[in-house]
Amino acid sequence: MLGNVQSMFLVGWRLCKLYESGKVTPGHSSLGKAWNSRMAREVVSLGRELLGGNGILADFLVAKAFCDLEPIYSYEGTYDINSLMTGREITGIASFKPAALAKARL
Ligand SMILES: Cc1cc2nc3c(=O)[nH]c(=O)nc-3n(C[C@H](O)[C@H](O)[C@H](O)COP(=O)(O)OP(=O)(O)OC[C@H]3O[C@@H](n4cnc5c(N)ncnc54)[C@H](O)[C@@H]3O)c2cc1C
């Protein structure tokens, strides 16, 4: 859990530095969001596992952290979409298209 938190912290720190120097790109942001939300999801899963049955009871804060984290995995652009954004930037190829466009070509 500590290793994951440290990696998330370092990704955030690096993004801040890129932002301050005016070099941050949408791909950087998407990679940071995808990585950090994935790592955070793993952290709360490990916390829940550590507590066994108590990990899913409302009396213990791990279950709350679990519920708080799930929206973050989706609402800042889902993990999948952030991954696709990153892929588009590093390859120049977009593996996704707007739903309306996909429908029009059927
Ligand atoms: C707590 C919370 C707060 C929110 N606040 C806001 C807000 O303030 N403003 C706002 O605009 N929105 C907000 N949202 C909405 C959020 O942006 C959407 O939930 C998010 O964009 C995902 O859209 P969706 O739920 O329609 O899932 P869908 O688009 O239906 O996606 C379902 C699944 O399919 C995957 N998927 C979708 N399209 C593709 C594709 N082309 N290729 C591969 N995989 C794909 C997704 O990654 C996801 O896993 C909020 C959501 C939550 C949960």
TrEMBL record:
<dbReference type="GO" id="GO:0005777">
    <property type="term" value="C:peroxisome"/>
</dbReference>
<dbReference type="InterPro" id="IPR036250">
    <property type="entry name" value="AcylCo_DH-like_C"/>
</dbReference>
<keyword id="KW-0285">Flavoprotein</keyword>
<dbReference type="GO" id="GO:0006635">
    <property type="term" value="P:fatty acid beta-oxidation"/>
</dbReference>
<protein>
    <recommendedName>
        <fullName>Acyl-CoA dehydrogenase/oxidase C-terminal domain-containing protein</fullName>
    </recommendedName>
</protein>
<dbReference type="InterPro" id="IPR006089">
    <property type="entry name" value="Acyl-CoA_DH_CS"/>
</dbReference>
<dbReference type="InterPro" id="IPR009075">
    <property type="entry name" value="AcylCo_DH/oxidase_C"/>
</dbReference>
<dbReference type="InterPro" id="IPR045008">
    <property type="entry name" value="ACX4-like"/>
</dbReference>
<dbReference type="Pfam" id="PF00441">
    <property type="entry name" value="Acyl-CoA_dh_1"/>
</dbReference>
<feature type="domain" description="Acyl-CoA dehydrogenase/oxidase C-terminal">
    <location>
        <begin position="5"/>
        <end position="89"/>
    </location>
</feature>
<dbReference type="GO" id="GO:0003995">
    <property type="term" value="F:acyl-CoA dehydrogenase activity"/>
</dbReference>
